[in-house]
């Protein structure tokens, strides 16, 4: 039977010869990731064991990853207490993949997992974060779940009642123009299929543009798959996947190399022509409200943000530094930069990107999620406008329901910083 | 029969339901105070217990899109409200099932604030307009989790049976 990549992974993880869309399976989990919300997970986990004559021990402490990233360093005593509870639990259970608030190994969970080689092709990855879809970039079946579902995974080691999703094949062919990047591809796709266009579906990425993309760019695509409602976004593993895992993540184990079958069944095929793609901007207050930058250029911006699990990687900071080096952030705006991990921060520092950005007037913050979801630093004032490389622009997202958030690539964000208005980077 | 407390549009995100800045509050007993916190009138009415349990909140398509934050389900669950929507985003629906928050998937629902609705088997009747709307049942296994009182009880049963078979 011909299978999509999602069907193959779920069949393997469920001990079945094959699986097809619509089947309900109980896949074994290879990696279970949480961040600060592990505080709620561990509360629910302990509740499961109430009245049972079994000790509350996680099924496999080596397969659980906990990364503090949403509110670091803690913005309140409440958060600090939650983090303390999690730290105690980690020590008690012997959880090894724990990344505390540390400059030598910390960062945003969706960067830490690939960076440390925790995700492999063919893995089933669950995370108490909707952007867990990111890890499909390495050929894993990775999806977001709630805290109670994670508590159940910690207890049982499998995900219950998972419906094998139908797959939408996304084919991107051609060469991206200068100042056009993976962010523009995924924004265009979400604009085309809309916020619920892939609800309960897998997005499987194909085509020459995808084949030619770095893992860093593929992480951008899969990160935002959930903004079209997708359960997972997945890139079939190839030589680039192996290169990334061997060279950058220092993985030495054998790698699973399966790809989707020739005759696999796709619900629909969506094609995007990379050659003609312009920089895109997602306008308030839904991610699928996507326009070419030319239609929105000139809009004044109060705060520009470059960073997050979507676009806070080394190539993103390099793209921004290229635009801003020896120039100045307009006095009409302010610019914040959040590298996705401390490793990236250090490399960007060594390569001079941070210096270029700071000398231009940008404020370089510590790696973390806070600003993107309005919980920690970088809040917007009443009626203010932000232009951000993050992944959501819902009303209130950056901490103020009267503010507006526009989403774009690092190239558009950096070009816009020069003028203080939304700017087509091809004009700079 | 119970009243519609409010009708919302499409793509109501978890940031609408439970704004990110309250996410340090995690326990289901504490989250209800921040339900639709930025829709100040609705939040005040909920906190004043203006709506009896069993009242309906009606959404459009893709209700609960966005974050995996479970607070979005627990915050509504604290008021005993039933959520009706044309469709639900995957993670929100699963969280609701896991916590036992009653949901009604009703692809063609038409209702206004204050209408009276009645659940009658596989249809939802708008008593005020006299129209009936078909309901899409939850997949069997999700219904089984709901019926056992949520995923905590369901997982506990699973552990018990694992123990018994050893």
Task: Give the helix/strand layout.
The complex is a heterodimer of chains A (428) and B (166).
Chain A: H1 5-13, E1 24-25, E2 31-34, H2 38-48, E3 64-67, H3 77-93, E4 97-99, H4 109-115, E5 124-127, E6 141-144, H5 147-156, E7 162-163, E8 166-173, H6 182-193, E9 201-206, H7 208-211, H8 215-223, E10 232-234, H9 239-248, E11 268-273, E12 280-282, E13 290-292, H10 293-296, E14 303-307, H11 308-311, H12 314-324, E15 334-338, H13 342-350, H14 353-360, E16 363-364, E17 385-388, E18 404-407, H15 410-419
Parallel strand pairs in A: 2-3, 2-5, 3-4, 5-6, 8-9, 8-11, 9-10, 14-15, 14-17, 15-16, 17-18
Antiparallel strand pairs in A: 1-7, 12-13
Helix pairs in contact in A: 2-5, 6-8, 12-14, 12-15
Chain B: E1 2-7, H1 14-17, H2 40-47, E2 56-58, H3 71-77, E3 82-85, H4 90-99, E4 103-105, E5 116-120, E6 123-126, E7 131-134, H5 140-147, H6 151-165
Helix pairs in contact in B: 3-4, 4-5
Major β-sheet strand ordering of chain A: 4-3-2-5-6
Examine the secondary-structure arrangement and name the CATH architecture of the largest domain in chain A. 2-Layer Sandwich
Indicate the low-confidence ranges of chain B by residue numbers: none
- Portion in beta strands of chain A: 15-25%
Provide the domain count of chain B. 1
- Residues in helix, % of chain A: 25-40%
Oligomer: heterodimer
Please provide the ordered H/E string of secondary-structure elements of chain B: EHHEHEHEEEEHH
What's the CATH H-level homologous superfamily of the largest domain in chain A?
Aconitase, domain 3
- How does the overall form of chain A come out from the CA principal axes? globular
Number of beta-strand segments of chain A:
18
Greatest interface by residues involved: A-B, 55 and 44 residues
Helicity level of chain B: 25-40%
Distance between the termini of chain B: 48 Å
Mean pLDDT of chain B: 95
CATH topology name of chain B, in short, is Aconitase, domain 4
Number of helices of chain B: 6
Number of strands of chain B: 7
CATH superfamily of chain B: Aconitase, domain 4
Number of helices of chain A: 15
């Amino acid at each position: 039977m011909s299978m999509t990549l999602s069907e193959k992974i779920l069949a393997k993880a469920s001990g079945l010869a094959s699986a097809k869309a619509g089947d309900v399976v109980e896949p074994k989990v290879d990696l279970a990731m949480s961040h600060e919300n592990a505080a709620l997970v561990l509360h629910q986990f302990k509740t499961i064991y109430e009245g049972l004559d079994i000790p509350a021990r996680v099924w496999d402490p080596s397969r659980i990853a906990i990364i503090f990233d949403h509110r670091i360093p803690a913005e309140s005593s409440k958060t600090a207490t939650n983090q303390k509870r999690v730290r105690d639990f980690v020590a008690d259970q012997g959880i090894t993949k724990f990344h505390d608030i540390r400059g030598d190994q910390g960062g945003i969970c969706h960067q830490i997992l690939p960076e440390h080689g925790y995700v492999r092709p063919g893995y089933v990855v669950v995370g108490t974060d909707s952007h867990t879809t990111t890890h499909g970039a390495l050929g894993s079946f990775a999806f977001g779940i709630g805290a109670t579902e994670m508590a159940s995974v910690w207890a049982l080691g499998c995900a219950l009642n998972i419906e094998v999703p139908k797959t939408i094949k996304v084919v991107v062919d051609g060469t991206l123009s200068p100042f056009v990047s993976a962010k523009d591809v995924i924004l265009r796709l979400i604009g085309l299929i809309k916020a619920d266009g892939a609800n309960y579906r897998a997005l499987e990425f194909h085509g020459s543009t995808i084949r030619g993309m770095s893992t860093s760019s593929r992480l951008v695509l899969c990160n935002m798959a959930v903004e079209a409602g997708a359960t997972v976004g997945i890139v079939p593993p190839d030589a680039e996947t192996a290169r990334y895992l061997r060279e950058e993540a220092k993985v030495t184990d054998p790698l699973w190399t399966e790809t989707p079958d020739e005759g696999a069944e796709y619900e629909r095929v969506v094609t995007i022509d990379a050659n003609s793609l312009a920089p895109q901007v997602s306008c308030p207050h839904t991610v699928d409200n996507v326009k070419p930058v030319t239609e929105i250029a000139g809009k004044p911006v109060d705060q520009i943000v470059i960073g997050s699990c979507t676009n806070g990687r080394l190539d993103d900071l390099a793209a921004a530094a290229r635009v801003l080096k020896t120039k100045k952030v307009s006095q009409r705006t302010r610019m914040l930069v959040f590298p996705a991990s401390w490793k990236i921060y250090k490399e960007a520092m060594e390569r001079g990107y941070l210096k270029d950005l700071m000398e231009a007037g940008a404020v370089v913050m510590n790696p973390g999620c806070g600003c993107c979801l309005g919980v920690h630093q970088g809040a917007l004032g009443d009626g203010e406008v932000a232009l951000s490389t993050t992944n959501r622009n819902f009303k209130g997202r950056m901490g103020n329901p009267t503010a507006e958030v526009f989403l774009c690539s690092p190239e558009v964000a950096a070009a816009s910083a020069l003028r203080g208005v939304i700017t087509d980077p091809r004009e700079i | 029969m119970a009243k519609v407390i409010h009708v919302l549009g499409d793509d109501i995100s978890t940031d609408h339901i439970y704004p990110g800045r309250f996410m340090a509050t995690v326990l289901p007993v504490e989250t209800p105070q921040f339900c639709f916190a930025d829709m100040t009138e609705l939040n005040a009415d909920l906190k004043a217990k203006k709506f009896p349990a069993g009242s309906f909140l009606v959404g459009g398509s893709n209700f609960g899109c966005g974050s995996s934050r479970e607070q979005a389900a627990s915050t509504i669950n604290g008021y005993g409200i039933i959520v009706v929507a044309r469709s639900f985003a995957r993670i929100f629906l699963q969280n609701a099932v896991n916590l036992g928050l009653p949901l009604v998937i009703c692809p063609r629902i038409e209702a206004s604030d204050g209408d009276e609705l009645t659940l009658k088997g596989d249809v939802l009747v708008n008593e005020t307009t006299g129209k009936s709307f078909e309901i899409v049942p939850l997949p069997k296994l999700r219904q089984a989790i709901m019926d056992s009182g949520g995923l905590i009880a369901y997982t506990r049963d699973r552990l018990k049976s694992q123990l018994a078979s050893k």
